[in-house]
Design brief:
With 802 residues, the protein is mainly beta. It is built from eight helices and 46 strands. The strands form 17 sheets. A six-stranded antiparallel sheet has the order 1-2-3-4-6-8.
Length: 802
């Protein structure tokens, strides 16, 4: 029996399975390649993002603290004390390290700048102090999990030594050229070792990969430093490379990321760590607010109704303006604030009345008299002009019309005809009023009991003498004569003004003064006596106030000997020569006549003169259109090295000035380091419209190709691109890249001319509506004036004529 069995089965053959595996492998290879590219791009993105965060955080730290933070140790474990915290980089063990030495995860390097000296040359290297910067820990790693290298100029970590101009770190390109105007002028930098991690340290503080040796990759190895482990840096100089990424296997391999900060300008203000809200003035010159030309330490100008300085206070102590002098705008007429705010009981102070606890009991200042406060136990209540006080209603004064003045003001003279008469003024008063009004009589100076006293009464029409006591008498000398001044200083003399005020040269002895008591006068006067003055015959002395002769500008003055001999002139001293105020007393003839002096004799001695000039380097500006080479080459001067002025990049020529022993100066040949400035600049001007009466340039902002910045160009500008050609002697050329467009001016109808000539609006009711040359001509048969609303002068235009 034949049995037919069906042996066909469904499934994959080996060939089909092999094909499927090949397809899957190809797909996996493509996906793996895409994933690898994504991870690499993400690493680059994270590295740059975290570097930017670190740089911005350091800048914020400086704005708040006035300094840059020290690095954190590179090798500190994540669970150890001090991880992510700035080190004490200016003291202790780190301060003892020499350039090229490392300790505790910190290395010390030295700048290549020859102009920096001492500790300004030190650079401290570690990693990001993320705790001081108050950023998250993951921001202190690059996109590949390595710790960033953080290098900082040591002087910038102290607010007292911080300076933008003292950066000590050098960053160079692949050719070894500095990326800054001054090589070694960078304050701080942040560095990632890239995807290869060569020379980098991982998250736990261990070395990822050793630095390359030999000539394999000189660019990448320049940034590599394993001294954090070994204790010795690969290079003691602070030099880093920043170049284009190159992933080949040649010597040009480079995958590091570098970001740094440098600034060639010195700040005017800085914050202090002791008081973060305070600022300190760093300028060595004057500081001005509202003025470009301050002439004092702090000049504050105002304009319009704006106050120069306004100080707000809330507690009576804050908001205080402190000063020890108040002066006018010329710097003169100064006085101390104590003249107003001081205690009147203290000598030299001013406007405070004594307290209630003082013996006098005066507590109120009711006025100012003779520059001093007038104090009273009670405040005086006065009625207005023409009123007098009648009574009080509670605490309010009741004032009534003042009585009629029957006796007008008058002037009387007491002791008329005597040597010391006194003139007094009597005010107006009513009938039976007395002067003085306090019931006493007018009297002379205190202590003069024999002086006359008088009292007056108004009889209804005039003042009459009521009573008169005492007698009148003349002034008499009193007291012992005292020395007033040296005779010669008092009298003056003929001769060299340099001897003014030296007693014993020429006139000898003293002028005396004696007081005179008066009866009803103003107190005491003075009588001067010069009878003891005499002339010395000989005197010789040396002075040192004569200027040194040219060309010396020295700090010393030369000596000149003068010999003086008195000679009779035959003239008796005039009365006006004897007293400074002849009206105060009689002139007295001195003991000997006036004599002249023979001065200005003797030979000058210039031995004390010296030349203050020294050898120096002078700098000159480059010609117009030229700039200083970068970097410039120094000349072979004897005063090398020297630095080109950073603040003046146009000064590209230098020469040495040599000062000889006789103070004459000669100059070495000029070292010219100028080159043509080929940078592109732009200029613009308003375009010229075809009809300037009816048209004006457009003012809306547009963007044009080549002009720096977007939206910075007005459509009505003619824009020019300016360059210089070094092959044609640096001649300037200008290429117009934009021609401006114009638009019609806007006008409006008005009712009349500004000079009073009336015009009728046609068509009517059009005042204020827009008009142009075109619509006017098409609708009007005669000229009607219109004006531009934007024109404040309201100038009239005749549209039809336009």
């Amino acid at each position: 029996m034949d049995i037919n069995k069906d042996t066909r089965q469904s499934g994959y053959t080996l060939i089909q399975m092999a094909i499927a595996l090949i397809v899957v492998g190809l797909l996996f290879s493509v996906m793996a390649n895409f994933y690898s590219q994504y991870k690499n791009q993400q690493g680059v993105k994270d590295s740059y993002s975290n570097i930017e965060t670190a740089i911005n955080s350091i800048a914020t730290y400086y704005a708040n603290q006035g300094r840059i933070p020290c690095p954190a140790p590179m090798t500190t474990a994540r669970n150890a004390t001090g991880y992510g915290t700035e080190s004490a980089c200016r003291s202790g063990a780190i301060a003892a390290l020499l350039p090229g030495e490392c300790s505790g995860g910190i290395c010390v390097e030295e700048t290549v700048r020859a102009s920096l000296t001492g500790t300004d040359r030190r650079v401290i290297v570690g990693t990001i102090p993320f705790r001081e910067l108050q950023i998250s820990e993951d921001r202190s790693f690059d996109g590949y999990g390595s710790r960033y290298v953080y290098a900082v100029t040591m002087s910038a970590t102290d607010e007292t030594t911080y300076s933008n101009l003292k950066g000590a770190i050098s960053v160079r390109d692949a050719n070894g050229d500095s990326l800054t105007d001054t090589d070694g002028s960078i304050l701080y930098l942040v560095l990632s070792h890239g995807k290869t991690k060569i020379g980098s340290y991982g998250k736990e503080g261990g070395l990822n990969s050793a630095c390359p040796t030999g000539a394999g990759s000189p660019l990448d190895s320049e940034n590599c430093n394993v001294g954090f482990d070994t204790g010795t840096s690969v290079d003691s100089q602070s030099i880093y490379i920043s170049a284009q990424e190159s992933l080949g296997t040649s010597s040009a391999f480079f995958d590091d990321y570098v970001s740094y900060f440098t600034n060639n300008s010195d700040p005017t203000w800085k914050r202090t760590s002791a008081e973060p809200e305070d600022i300190e003035d760093l300028s060595s010159n004057f500081v001005g607010v509202g003025t470009t030309t301050p002439s004092v330490d702090l000049a504050v100008n105002s304009s319009g109704s704006t106050d120069s300085i306004r100080v707000y206070g809330t507690t009576g102590t804050d908001g205080t303006l402190y000063t020890d002098q108040i002066c006018d705008e010329t710097g003169g007429n100064c006085f101390s604030p104590l003249a107003i705010a001081g205690d009147n009981s203290v000598a030299g102070e001013g406007m405070k009345c004594p307290k209630a606890s003082d013996p006098v009991g005066a507590i109120y200042m009711v006025g100012i008299e003779n520059g001093e406060p007038k104090c009273s136990e009670a405040i005086e209540v006065l009625c207005g002009p023409g009123l007098v006080l009648k009574s009080f209603s509670g605490t309010n004064p009741v004032c009534v019309t003042a009585p009629v003045t029957n006796c007008p003001p008058t002037t009387v003279t007491i002791c008329n005809g005597y040597s010391n008469p006194v003139t007094v003024n009597i005010p107006g008063g009513s009938t039976n009023a007395f002067w003085p009004s306090n019931g006493s009589s007018y009297e002379g100076p205190a202590g003069d009991d024999n002086c006359r006293r008088e009292r007056y009464r108004c009889n209804g029409t005039s003042w009459v003498l009521r009573d008169g006591l005492g007698t009148c008498k003349s002034g008499v000398l009193s007291g012992t004569p005292t020395t007033y001044a040296a005779c010669r200083n008092f009298l003056g003399h003929s001769g060299n003004a340099n001897y003014s005020g030296v007693q014993g040269f020429g006139w000898d002895n003293n002028v005396t003064v004696q007081t005179i008591s008066t009866c009803l006068g103003t107190g005491v006067t003075s009588q001067y006596d010069v009878s003891a003055c005499s002339c010395k015959d000989d005197d010789t002395r040396t002075v040192t106030n004569a200027a040194c002769p040219a060309p010396y500008t020295g700090v010393n003055k030369r000596k000149i000997t003068y010999t003086a001999q008195c000679e009779y002139s035959g003239n008796i001293v005039n009365a006006a020569d004897l007293v400074p105020r002849p009206d105060l007393g009689s002139a007295v003839t001195p003991a000997t006549p006036r004599k002249h002096f023979g001065l200005n004799t003797g030979v000058p001695d210039d031995s004390l003169c010296a030349c203050s000039n020294v050898n120096r380097i002078e700098f000159l500006d480059c010609p117009s259109g030229f700039k200083r080479k970068s970097p410039p080459t120094p000349a072979s001067f004897t005063l090398t090295p020297y630095s080109w002025p950073v603040a003046y990049p146009t000064r590209g020529r230098s020469y040495q000035v040599n000062v000889a022993s006789d103070c004459t100066e000669t100059a070495d040949p000029i070292n010219d380091q100028c080159e043509c400035d080929t940078s592109i600049s732009y200029s613009h001007s308003n375009t010229t419209c075809a009809d300037p009466v009816c048209q004006e340039p457009k003012t809306n902002l547009i963007t044009i190709s080549g002009y720096p910045g977007a939206g910075n160009v007005q459509e009505g500008w003619d824009v020019f691109e300016n360059t210089r050609d070094p092959m044609l002697g640096c001649t300037a050329t200008s290429n117009q890249i934009q021609t401006g467009n114009c638009q019609a001016k806007g006008f409006s109808w008005i009712e009349s001319h500004t000079n009073g000539d009336a015009y009728t609006i046609q068509p009517p009711n059009e005042v204020g509506k827009e008009c142009t040359c075109a619509n006017h001509v098409s609708t009007m048969s005669s000229t009607v004036p219109c004006y531009r609303p934007a024109d404040a002068s309201k100038t009239l235009y005749f549209c039809k004529c336009q």
